[in-house]
Amino acid sequence: MLILALESSCDETAASVSRDGREILSNVVYSQIDMHALYGGVVPEIASRKHAEKITAVAAEAVRQAGISFEDLDAVAATCAPGLIGALLVGANFAKAASLMLDVPFIPVHHIRAHIAANYVAFPELEPPFTALVASGGHTVIIDVEDYTKMEVLGTTRDDAAGEAFDKIARVLSLPYPGGAALDRLSKEGDKDKYKLPRAAVNGHPFDFSFSGLKTASLNLIHNAAQKGEEIDRESLAAAVSHAVADSVVPRVVEAALQKGRKKICAAGGVAANSTLRGKLTDLCKKKGIELYLPPLNLCGDNGAMIACQAYYEYKAGNISDCSQNCYANMAVSEQLCGR
Asked: In CATH terms, is domain 2-116+301-316 a member of 3.40.50.720?
């Protein structure tokens, strides 16, 4: 089964063609990083307009690289939630129009489910059940993946996502956009123990996260140093922030897996590329006898391959839609897009 999938939930315009889900025939990504770097973060209106400019060319290139024609496609898919609503609508409307023109099914895909599916692309042997950590600029969530389309949220952030904290701290440190990656590089040169930063917990909810306190404490350190005319040790603060996030996330993910009786853990999302997080998760999983799956860095960020892979399993589960399908800025990973 050949599926063309579109991803436009934030600032990457991406398209991919898959055969039966896990065989990726093409994976084309047009990044808007250089444009949004001018503003220090994603500007939703600019992102939507740029998607509209690039979506046709990106989809055509994905089909060309796959060595097929549009007429060979058996279905078209697109991210429909969650994300920037204007950006989502560009990819979804293109996909719906293509499915109507080609007379093939339209498959709406949940962005978080697709991040998890990036592991299926990287590891053909991987099958549910397992526990997944999805960490990005907008999400930090622990998910029990019972099946390809049946998932339960075990824990989530109560305020900022880990990636949000990384990006905002990096911006105040005058690091280049995207801040999370720059902060990670800088952290390798610092002393993680020089600055004491909080590790928050939510009373009564052991698997939930809170990163707003970490962000505030870090920004206060930077601003207080500036007011005193002191120079902040950027490398050490970056290391302290990276370890604070990893210390908050890693034990919770592993404990959640153990409580559910899962022997496998997958990480996904842009923050899953953080070297400190990957290292601590690797060490603890090895200690606890848990198999760990970490996708390659090129599959941690937004891409079309993960959408194409998850679309195949949504199709097999009967989760197909039509041109009336809407997009949603927020939606739990356990919810079905079809029928809303």
From this structure: no
